[in-house]
Amino acid sequence: MKKEFVVIGLGRFGGSIVRELVEQGMEVMAIDKFEDKIDEFANIATHAVMADSTDESVLRSLGIRNFDHVIVAIGDDIQASILTTLMLKEIGVKKITVKAQNDYHEKVLRRIGADKVVHPERDMGKRIAHNIVSNNVLDYLELSDEHSIVEIVANDLLIGNTIIGLDIRAQYGINIVAIKRKDDIIVSPQATDEIQADDILIVIGADTDINRFEKKVMQSS
Ligand code: ATP
To answer: What PROSITE patterns does the entry give (predicted)?
Structure first.
């Protein structure tokens, strides 16, 4: 069965979520308080509705409770974002994801019961910073405050060595969980697997340990 979503706030972030969900065949109700946004999304979303999401009676009349997942993508107006989230909780929406503007906003959203809080500018900033500092780091995904997964391009220090030979787990306390090799992905590589040129290592571990490893890989690049 198709899942049904509501996206509130059709800025760049909310708008791109609407487009992607529709692309994936989902039903999407797109809401914004400005008419030009509704005109823009009228032919993209399943329904595009002009409404102020801080008005509880409007939310109820739209039958928001029956949707599987509501995404609150209001950015600058933190008060409207918090109020909307609070009312969605009160109405009994099953799953709420909210975009946070800063750490305080995130804290409040978590406290009032948002199921998921996303912080796209901050997260993308971190990912790009890792890539800028080290060309070998292709991508970076934060798992928790202290743990991440990174994609690192193998360099001369690594190429031609086996995983056991490099002793990465003992030396750095991190694990290679997969290797991307051309179009293949080797999940749970063997200790005896040899790292080849152009391999991309997917590494998991504590940030401090990953940073030590990144620096080591960088030094020999
Ligand atoms: P982005 O960076 O994603 O472009 P942003 O973080 O700058 O967006 P805003 O432009 O502040 O976010 O808000 C996104 C959208 O949310 C805007 O189109 C705005 O009209 C809409 N919006 C703001 N408040 C409400 C509200 N109370 N009800 C409905 N829509 C709202």
So the answer is: RCK_C, RCK_N
